[in-house]
Amino acid sequence: MKYLDEFGNPDLAHRLVEQIHAVTTRPWAMMEVCGGQTHSIIRHGIDQLLPSGVEMIHGPGCPVCVTPLEMIDKALAIAAHPGVIFCSFGDMLRVPGSSRDLFTVKSAGADVRVVYSPLDALKIARENPDRQVVFFGIGFETTAPANAMTVYQARRLGVPNFSLLVSHVLVPPAIAAIMESPRCRVQAFLAAGHVCSVMGTGEYPPLAEKYRVPIVVTGFEPLDILEGIRQTIVQLEAGEHVVQNAYPRAVRDEGNPAAMAMLRDVFEVTDRTWRGIGMIPASGWRLSAKYREFDAEQRFDVDDVRAAESPLCRSGEVLQGLLKPHQCAAFGKQCTPRNPLGATMVSSEGACAAYYAYRRLELVQL
């Protein structure tokens, strides 16, 4: 039980909260980048323990949430294609496209399967050589190495009926885009620990220096987040803007060299559209020329798919930290986890889902 409760110790948490209150003299606004951190903050009420005026702004670090609507519609089109076995992690099946989701396509007869690893999809492809098998590869730098390894193995083993629908995005360009927005209120960032466990911290010092914002790499347990907030406020109060690692048990400055080498081999940087945000230059990956034959977008010729968001959904503003979920008029009414208008309500890391699960009754009473 040590590692299940060690980083949720209430006595240590109260001590950190006291230290945060002791060092805070001014209002501050900081963004937690990762949706997993958002859920931990809302679930444990961490934002409600902070000094008055210290605001947590929820960032765009939910991989499901930022997968663009066009990519969801491309996935739906490919999944409905005769002879295709479409594989995905389970959290993508209820993400709404323009008019339906993968569950709806599956109920209409498509062969849509939930897998727990992209290598499971590769195994399915080897077992079904007469069918095309596609894996939906989404996410940040955290999930990309496993997807890269799967494509590498498909090429090495000679599995021509496997392909990857790629929708990978990168954290550092998103931080730059947020800071360059004219509506930006962010004064500091809690960086995502699992991303940095892969990529290290080397990409962040130039951002901290350019935008003069502290960036503290943080984990996901209550004590991790509180310590990250404490270190961030200490920097803000001192007028400093450097990168600190508050998650040393999982993150090394150099990252994971083997994973990064695999990523450099299989992927290349490209412009990416983020759902609700728009195109961010050089903010994603696509398959490199060496592996382009495994690109599902090219294999199934879905480049002309276009989509339109629901006019009621304001998830893009939520993802940019411009709006709290309950400030959207559709929250909990037209938009619920059972009938989501946007991915932020259905994803296990979405800010709207966090507020619905942990703050809904409280918000109704206000």
From TrEMBL:
NCBIfam families, A to Z: hypD (TIGR00075)
Family as reported in the entry's similarity comment: Belongs to the HypD family.
Cross-referenced InterPro entries: Hyd_form_HypD, HypD_1, HypD_2_sf
Keyword Iron tagged: yes
Species this protein is from: Paractinoplanes durhamensis
Gene3D superfamilies recorded: 6.10.20.100, HypD, alpha/beta domain 2
Keywords: Iron, Metal-binding
Tagged with keyword Metal-binding: yes
One Pfam family here: HypD
Source organism, top-level taxon: Bacteria
Record protein name field: Hydrogenase formation protein HypD
